[in-house]
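Quick question: what would this complex look like in 3D?
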Amino acid sequence: MTVPSTASLDTTNARAAYFLSDSTGITAETLGNALLSNFPGFVFHRHTIPFVDTVKGANDVVRQIARDADAGLEPIIFTTTKNAAVSAALRTAPGTIIDLLGGHLTELEAALGTTASEQLGQFHMLGDATQYFARMRAVEYAIEHDDGQSSRALDIADLIIVAPSRCGKTPTTMYLALQYGLLIANYPLTDDDFPTDGLPPLIAPYAARCFGITTTPLRLSQVRHERRPDSTYASLAQCTLELRRAEDLYRRNRVPFLNSSTKSVEEMSAVILQTLRLRP
Amino acid sequence: MTVPSTASLDTTNARAAYFLSDSTGITAETLGNALLSNFPGFVFHRHTIPFVDTVKGANDVVRQIARDADAGLEPIIFTTTKNAAVSAALRTAPGTIIDLLGGHLTELEAALGTTASEQLGQFHMLGDATQYFARMRAVEYAIEHDDGQSSRALDIADLIIVAPSRCGKTPTTMYLALQYGLLIANYPLTDDDFPTDGLPPLIAPYAARCFGITTTPLRLSQVRHERRPDSTYASLAQCTLELRRAEDLYRRNRVPFLNSSTKSVEEMSAVILQTLRLRP
């Protein structure tokens, strides 16, 4: 996002943005930031406050918001709190309240012809024990199999991410392991893997579960310079060569692949899930 | 409505739930599921479809939704798509459309006295290069420092998570590294660390950045039995002892700590961020 340099100096475009939740605040923060990203002319002073689940807690937050309002920051308040008394307390805050759930819950009640359960007031996204164990196991599997370190139990991998060093295998692997509990190995393509027509022997039996990553030579060179400045490893020539070889390898073996240079970890993950039909 | 005679499922409480997005679908899925969790009496057949960013793509999805509608599954469609033509195509789907962003965008436009940027139609949550590098570095730091494996650069850790083996240090560490780009080490308390009054020498200099995890002896014993069935390590007596010693250590050294037994990774992370004031 590009913020015009004049905007950051202009206090009339500064706003306080609050993300309030009776749980972790992750939903309020994610959706609130997605909405705010459409207004690049403003500078938002952001505050995430999780676990606002009592009237006293809400009143404390309202006082904090009031201080920002007094300072001329015209607060915008995103909230996912559900308790009626807490929500009522928050509505006394001097600012614009954007209730991210309440209205949609009413729409859902109409669609389903019933009222929302009172008991399930909290949004426990991934709180149950089975899912917790699955994620724990997936993260540990990912660490064990990071960077081709282990060939143990590779046959049970849901996915093997293949790429030259520093193309971004590891963050995408961890994201998918944590969010979806998938068992993911990643395998670094090195000079030893070329020239060859086939996939490296360790992963060749699992070609259908492989997904390749590529990037641009310039981006790869920049990332490698951070690790080993002015090395052959980081040179543009070496990066260009390795990426061309890797892409050839993917194509020859019909391994789907993606360029990571302009994509977030979330976008990479969504494409991989979609391509290999791994979405639970 | 026609229910096919071959249907073995009672569709009275069965519904199709679609999470549609012009980007990753993560926001639609997260918020949609949070909303649906309030209606435990229903069985939802869930479909996440990311990258619905053309009218043709939208029409394909509408046909899929129509098949569910014909089967009596009364579709509920959560969407975060923003393109007007795509949204118009989706609105022809036979079901209840819940637009998770549109209404809120209008509220924000009113609050800010301007219109949303047309150029920034996509929600690139964490797509920029600086944040990408920060997350990559954080995940690699977390892997290097998992389970007390390395004391290198421990002085730059934002946070050191301390706990006996199998209390859930690693998934929480990875979540915080990925979501917030924080540098996090984790340190396993073993019998070698007791009896002692102080923190283990490796982490003692960084006491102010330590956070402890505990759990219930029963839960710890269950998790350890998965790794080493019927071992002393997994016995209830050993687990009880280790947890009591760990909690004593936390208290004596004023290390804040949390019981992970009933908490999700997200909830743990939110409490840790809040307690150590690590939120960016």
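Answer marked as accepted. Residues 1-9, 119-127 of chain A have pLDDT under 50 and may be disordered.
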